[in-house]
Design goal:
It contains 14 helices and no strands. The chain is elongated and about 60 Å long. Helix 5 runs antiparallel to helix 6. It has 2 domains: about 120 residues, Ankyrin repeat-containing domain (Serine Threonine Protein Phosphatase 5, Tetratricopeptide repeat, Alpha Horseshoe); about 100 residues, Serine Threonine Protein Phosphatase 5, Tetratricopeptide repeat (Alpha Horseshoe). It is mainly alpha-helical and about 220 residues long. The longest helix is centred in the N-terminal third of the chain and has 12 residues.
């Protein structure tokens, strides 16, 4: 496994810890509130917000607000409840990840659709210049990729290193995402800052012959 793959896997492994990142500064009741959001316990969330309305924007020790936790766990009903009570649709986590980015990275298509319906910025960038589409494609969440494409996400957006969603879908062997990105107009010859194009990425990774052929058929060059 490449160093880049390892970093992505490690990042995914920290999500649960981030969601429940509550230290000694939190009361047991506030811990219970985050757990209720995490588990989608709408009645308990509603009860606690009735007693503590300001908790709708409280921040845990990992920099996450309740709306981030609801989004990453795909708890759409809880997310709606939080937004209706004043949660920030564009609240930034410490890496500038907004609720939509979390929903897309975790593959929570229904939650992502609701956030978009509410007006979430579809191409909002995180600290690395990456969009929700980038993260959905990286993790192979085809339904989310389809949703974002249908809602007119920028399929050619590049991060600070010049990498696009197509680069990452190719790198991780996400064939369905690659096909949909190409069909939506992704630039098959986009070069990152190191000069690497998607076809070069596919060539450097084993077992990507089908993806290589898809790129070649779309006019890709090394």
């Amino acid at each position: 496994m490449s160093g880049r793959c390892i970093r992505v896997c490690l990042a995914a492994a920290t999500v649960a810890a981030m969601a429940l990142g509550m230290g000694g500064c939190y009361t047991k009741e506030k811990q219970s509130f985050f757990l209720a959001v995490h588990g989608g316990n709408t009645s308990e969330v509603e009860r606690m917000l009735g007693d503590h309305a300001d908790w709708v924007r409280t921040v845990n020790d990992e920099g996450a607000q309740p709306i981030h936790v609801a989004a990453m766990e795909g708890q759409t009903k809880v997310a709606v409840m939080l937004l209706d009570r004043g949660a920030d649709l564009e609240a930034k986590h410490k890496n500038s990840w907004r609720p939509l980015c979390w929903a897309c990275e975790r593959g929570a298509a229904d939650t992502a659709a609701m956030l978009l319906d509410r007006g979430a910025a579809i191409d909002a960038r995180d600290r690395w210049g990456r969009t929700p589409l980038y993260w959905a494609a990286t993790h192979g969440h085809t339904p989310v990729v389809e949703l974002l494409i249908a809602r007119k996400a920028d399929v050619r957006a590049a991060d600070k290193d010049g990498r696009t969603a197509l680069h990452e879908a190719v790198r991780f062997g996400r064939e369905e995402c690659v096909a949909r990105l190409i069909r939506a107009g992704a630039d098959v010859n986009a070069a990152d800052k190191g000069g690497q194009r998607p076809l070069g990425v596919a060539t450097n990774v084993r077992r990507h012959d089908k993806i290589r052929q898809m790129l070649l058929s779309a006019g890709a060059t090394p």
